[in-house]
Amino acid sequence: MSRPPRALPTLLVLAACALAQPLASAPDATRVRAPELSAPASVITDRWGIPHIRAASLDDLYYTWGWVSARDRLWQMVWTRTAGDGQTHRWLGNDALRADAGAQLFRLRERAHALWERDRSDPAVRSALEHYAAGVNAWIESCRRRERAWPPELKRLKLVPEDWLPEDSYVVLLGFGITLDLDLPELSEARAVADSGAAWAAKRRRFEDAWIYDSIPDSAAARLWGARAALSGMLS
To answer: At the fourth CATH level, which superfamily is domain 8-230?
Structure first.
């Protein structure tokens, strides 16, 4: 088999969301059939909730991978994409302003679009991401047709998500990259506590956390987004 395309790390990030499933009582086997597949694909979810895919071709594998990701983690995928776009304030109001401002500051969507426009000229990358997106969208369409149930979070928000785009995978990858970068300082926090004491560490964090301020009053958020502005505590 040829070397995996450069897009593989992107899909690995998304697949990691699908792997973190609750324990199942017994392995579950599913056959995935679709006009886009050259042959039915097999998905066996083991007792740890980890899906194992067997497909007739690499294109079929990516399609089924997207299908499984949406089956297991559609809400997380929609949430992460929306967070990457800096738009979760539409659901959560002021509580999401800081995170959304960061996503907009880093222009994650603009960067994702540029990366996709660059990489789509590579046939292997384009095929991988387009087949993955097609698999995600096949699951979304089955929910739209009421053949399958939407995740409870989407039902609570009365939200029908848009189709998954190939560049959405880049949005998720960039978002996770920044999140991990920002989390790295926490690895040294235990040493800081040991060296300077918990009170010193708490005081430092207090100043670090207070450098951004919410700028939209709750009343304005309610006028802009209505009842959705009151969802700040609903999804915690």
So the answer is: Penicillin Amidohydrolase, domain 1 (1.10.439.10)
